[in-house]
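IS66 family transposase (Lactiplantibacillus modestisalitolerans), 515 aa
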Amino acid sequence: MAEAEKDQEIQELKAQIKLLTEQVAFLTRKLYASKSEKVDPNQTSLFDQDTSVFTEPEQTGDQSSSTSDQVQPKKAPKKMRQTQVAKNVPVRITILEPTDETCPVGHVNITPVGKKFVREELKLIPARLYLNKIYVRTYKCADCADATATAGLFRSLVPPALISHSLASASLVAEVLYRKFVLGVPLYRQLPEMARLGYRTSEATLTNWVIKAAQKLEPLYDELHRQLGLSHHLQGDETPMEVLREPGKAATAKSYMWVARTPIKQPNPVVYYAYGATRSGAFAQHLYQNYQGVLQCDGYSGYNLLGNSIQRMGCWAHVRRKFYDTAAVHIKVADKILQLINQMFALEREWRRYSPRVRRRRRRSRLRKILKRFWRMVDQTETLPQSRLGKAIAYAQSQRANLDRIINDGVIDWSNNAAERNMKSLVIGRKNWLFSTSTQGANSTALWMTLIESAKANHIDPRQYLVDLLTACRTLPAFPKTEQLAVYLPWNYRRQPAVTVKTEYRKVDRAACIA
């Protein structure tokens, strides 16, 4: 009996050593190896890892299909990419002429006979501030004065200020928002630039502008949420963020920013952010309240509370990521499973421009066979439950029903990376902002990210879109109707850029002309 107990203890210790060795290898790679999943097949690894697993980073529908027995094609020499200037950039023509209107010899009887193109230069006009003092003119109507026995004085209507008792204009606030939420520049780092332009203010003032302006656009934010619920397919994700002054929570406690968006194939794209104090399923119920359709998300259990009215679909990028981490620590079974996932993404890359109907037909005819091989290999693999391979297999099996549903739907993407890329825009900014001071600031962040990312998804300039929204919100009623807000939805926003062609005749000295 003692001998049997000893053998059992030895087996348990061996299993523990195997798990710890795998964990050490994984953490060592995370610390010192490349963080990117893109692997150069010609580069030897410091950790002697098998470079035939992947040759491309993870992207939506854009995966490498290379396998370990394939020969890597030779890369074509890089070509210089020609710069492209947008068609809406104004053009100014400069013609160089002699200053004294004489020829190099000194004769004055000269006439132009043509011009020669020399080069093109792209000019930049730096930002500058100017103080706009607004007056309203007073008029007197003599007829009204005689008819009504009054002075007959009147003034034209004055549009209200964007923020009462403030110097803030639509263009200035839009620039502050663009720098923070598009370029990722925190408010305190914008103060020195404003001081150089001639305006000294405080971070509290800029914060007040961001929050007050967001409150004026809340009806449009709510309308985008309503429009989002009309779509039959959605993608969702969430990420932590820190709010310092939140009632009932410590400053270091985690809050969350949620994102929901329409798939890439859907017209009139919407990207909607929402701030939640927790990651619980109760907030997911609030976000997707009254929604009935398809939702693609990860395996987070909080989505389980959404009920049967929402059909869940899984994300193959999450499955692939777990097997990639496992294959990177010399587990050959994970490498083979990974190659099957690569084949799926390679086919999806070929079909990404097809219509949903064609893509669904291709998935059912070609991906189904690869999918059966994948599940057969996953089910037949024996491994320790607590190992990285065991956890990757357990995650895939727990999401099996959600992953298999994508075969029969051509609208939804093969992965949820579109929503994750939108969330990455927030994460990049969060690295610079670090936190939100209050829940008002967190809610305003959700609103501005919604408007900006929705503008990007609809291929419109977010800076000009913000300027026009902030200009229009001053004249909107307190409770605007749906038809009044519809004009400012991103897909209805069609601001035609004014292409101006100006001609400038500038005289220069003779030496410059001859040169």
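Residues 315-415 form one domain. Residues 39-70, 496-515 have pLDDT under 50 and may be disordered. ok done for today
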